[in-house]
Amino acid sequence: MDGTRVSGRAVGRAVGRVAGYAAMAVVCAFILLPFVWMVLSSLKPNNEVFMVPVRWLPSTWHWEHYAQIWTKADMGTWLLNTVFFAVVVMLLQVATGSFAAYGFSKIAFPGRNTLFLVYVATMAVPWQAYMIPQFKMLSVIGLNDTRWSIILLQAFGAFGVFMMKQFYDTIPDELAEAARLDGMSEFGIWARIIVPLSGPSIAALAIITFTNTWNDYMGPLLYLRSPDLYTIQLGLKTFISQYDADYAMIMTGSVLSVLPILVVFLLGQKQFIEGIATSGMKG
Amino acid sequence: MGAQDLAGRGGGARDNSAHVRTLRNRNIRNGLLFIAPNFIGFLVLILIPVVTLFYTSFTKWSALGEPSFNGLANWRRLFADENFKTATLNTLYYAAVHIPLTLALAFGLAVLLNAKIRGRAFFRTVAFFPYITAIVAVAQVWSMMFDPKSGLINQFLGLFVDDLPGWLSSTSWAMPAVIIVGTWREVGYFMILLLAGLQTIPAELYEAAQVDGANGWQRFWHVTVPCMWPTLFFVTVTLTITSLKILDLTLVMTNGGPGISTLVLAQYVYRVAFERADFGYASTVSLMLFFICLAVTMLQFWINNRRERA
């Protein structure tokens, strides 16, 4: 095509392209706006958060909010508790999930399809529907308001088993068969052949579990009463109701509650997104 | 070693039925051993509560003590309960707007991102931010932005219209506000699922359509949509369940208010159980929530099957 005569189709394509970029820019702005507003508000003097007309940039930047919040609220305890829960749940979910997935994917035993179907079927039952019997049961055995409640609540989800099985099914059975012929135990095959091959999907499951546990609000709300067990979500919520007019400080706490998970996501987003895409897809 | 070898080849030899049996037994033992750590937790914490629910919905069960059977009393109460009716209607309202809105936006964005455009990776990352952000911070920021007088949103709308919505302080505008936040939050997640589906469509199909003279719009309706049907179906089912069980968003953002204008089913369960300690009746409401999810999913499967046969 020479530069002087541009065909109608090319013009159409260029218009489409510009429209596409414009749509993307608008959506991007819509998605990011609350984040931008949250960060900017956390750095404003309190009376500038709700100004009419809106004042985007603070007149003076109050970085000290990020130092003060540690004494105003029990942020340190909340963050530490949350990290503890997220790490323990992540380890348990990855270990038991990949273990069970190996059983479902690589060992042919009668009834395994039925058993797996039970797993998949309960994935469709919303937690909201069985949270009551679960709560009463854990309360009866005295685990209400203990660290155990949150760990048990999150660690044995069917999702991890399902996701790992999807991945193990793509590893050829011949690999496990050959190792069996060489006399390797099932545990050995799992530990030395399958796990080393499944790095990306283990990373995906680990990141997804970590994020879910970090962000969980309902679990801690139902089970945790003692302030020294509070997670960041529960803590932030109580902080908001205590300092309900201290808008800048509330935004500071919100930023701090979101930031760690944003960093985790940015570091592992490839695994995260692929994990979601593949385990979501084959359902 | 020999036994496994023979069994692995289908066991045609004379004397290997015993070997097959040992292998089978060993497989049962090993299989169950591997599954056990997860399964025991799963059984105790998920399966048993789910099954128990069917019984406790027929009981009177307060904060202390055991559930005691009370026949159909809970169910009679349920069908006369105005709050339950409102909560069901609110849930359906949320679902009826949230599902098509999220699906359309997510699909549109996925198609856009599937084209080779610059900034695609950046956009994919950004679109996922709301989904991984915890609900408490999300609800707080949006509540402040929805402030009727000095919030960002009404200040912007004030440039165009005079009659501004009261958002979270108005019984008719609170639900739209919740829906906006719900959509903002979930669109990126469903976009990723749809994008993964789009990437499995073979490029040859588009090339063939182009050779036949189909324009972009025709290619979308006659290639993209039919190929995406299984993915769209799966996403719709997931999205429906997510919408019907909505809880933490309304709990933190509106606490069901103003009045009970955003009280949804799952939050009604929470209220009855944890604010009134009426666990028996709360089980009945939970079971209804479960049945509604089940019925909608089955309906969707039925429609999908009919469509595939047609």
TrEMBL record, chain A:
<protein>
    <submittedName>
        <fullName>Carbohydrate ABC transporter permease</fullName>
    </submittedName>
</protein>
<keyword id="KW-0472">Membrane</keyword>
<dbReference type="GO" id="GO:0055085">
    <property type="term" value="P:transmembrane transport"/>
</dbReference>
<dbReference type="InterPro" id="IPR000515">
    <property type="entry name" value="MetI-like"/>
</dbReference>
<comment type="similarity">
    <text>Belongs to the binding-protein-dependent transport system permease family.</text>
</comment>
<feature type="transmembrane region" description="Helical">
    <location>
        <begin position="150"/>
        <end position="168"/>
    </location>
</feature>
<feature type="domain" description="ABC transmembrane type-1">
    <location>
        <begin position="79"/>
        <end position="268"/>
    </location>
</feature>
<dbReference type="Pfam" id="PF00528">
    <property type="entry name" value="BPD_transp_1"/>
</dbReference>
<feature type="transmembrane region" description="Helical">
    <location>
        <begin position="189"/>
        <end position="210"/>
    </location>
</feature>
<keyword id="KW-1133">Transmembrane helix</keyword>
<dbReference type="InterPro" id="IPR035906">
    <property type="entry name" value="MetI-like_sf"/>
</dbReference>
<keyword id="KW-1003">Cell membrane</keyword>
<feature type="transmembrane region" description="Helical">
    <location>
        <begin position="247"/>
        <end position="267"/>
    </location>
</feature>
<keyword id="KW-0812">Transmembrane</keyword>
<feature type="transmembrane region" description="Helical">
    <location>
        <begin position="78"/>
        <end position="102"/>
    </location>
</feature>
<dbReference type="GO" id="GO:0005886">
    <property type="term" value="C:plasma membrane"/>
</dbReference>
<feature type="transmembrane region" description="Helical">
    <location>
        <begin position="21"/>
        <end position="40"/>
    </location>
</feature>
<keyword id="KW-0813">Transport</keyword>
<feature type="transmembrane region" description="Helical">
    <location>
        <begin position="114"/>
        <end position="130"/>
    </location>
</feature>
TrEMBL record, chain B:
<dbReference type="InterPro" id="IPR035906">
    <property type="entry name" value="MetI-like_sf"/>
</dbReference>
<feature type="transmembrane region" description="Helical">
    <location>
        <begin position="31"/>
        <end position="55"/>
    </location>
</feature>
<keyword id="KW-1003">Cell membrane</keyword>
<protein>
    <submittedName>
        <fullName>Sugar ABC transporter permease</fullName>
    </submittedName>
</protein>
<keyword id="KW-0812">Transmembrane</keyword>
<comment type="similarity">
    <text>Belongs to the binding-protein-dependent transport system permease family.</text>
</comment>
<feature type="transmembrane region" description="Helical">
    <location>
        <begin position="249"/>
        <end position="269"/>
    </location>
</feature>
<feature type="transmembrane region" description="Helical">
    <location>
        <begin position="220"/>
        <end position="242"/>
    </location>
</feature>
<feature type="transmembrane region" description="Helical">
    <location>
        <begin position="189"/>
        <end position="208"/>
    </location>
</feature>
<feature type="transmembrane region" description="Helical">
    <location>
        <begin position="281"/>
        <end position="303"/>
    </location>
</feature>
<dbReference type="GO" id="GO:0005886">
    <property type="term" value="C:plasma membrane"/>
</dbReference>
<dbReference type="GO" id="GO:0055085">
    <property type="term" value="P:transmembrane transport"/>
</dbReference>
<dbReference type="InterPro" id="IPR051393">
    <property type="entry name" value="ABC_transporter_permease"/>
</dbReference>
<keyword id="KW-0813">Transport</keyword>
<keyword id="KW-0472">Membrane</keyword>
<feature type="transmembrane region" description="Helical">
    <location>
        <begin position="164"/>
        <end position="182"/>
    </location>
</feature>
<dbReference type="InterPro" id="IPR000515">
    <property type="entry name" value="MetI-like"/>
</dbReference>
<dbReference type="Pfam" id="PF00528">
    <property type="entry name" value="BPD_transp_1"/>
</dbReference>
<feature type="domain" description="ABC transmembrane type-1">
    <location>
        <begin position="88"/>
        <end position="300"/>
    </location>
</feature>
<keyword id="KW-1133">Transmembrane helix</keyword>
<feature type="transmembrane region" description="Helical">
    <location>
        <begin position="125"/>
        <end position="144"/>
    </location>
</feature>
<feature type="transmembrane region" description="Helical">
    <location>
        <begin position="92"/>
        <end position="113"/>
    </location>
</feature>
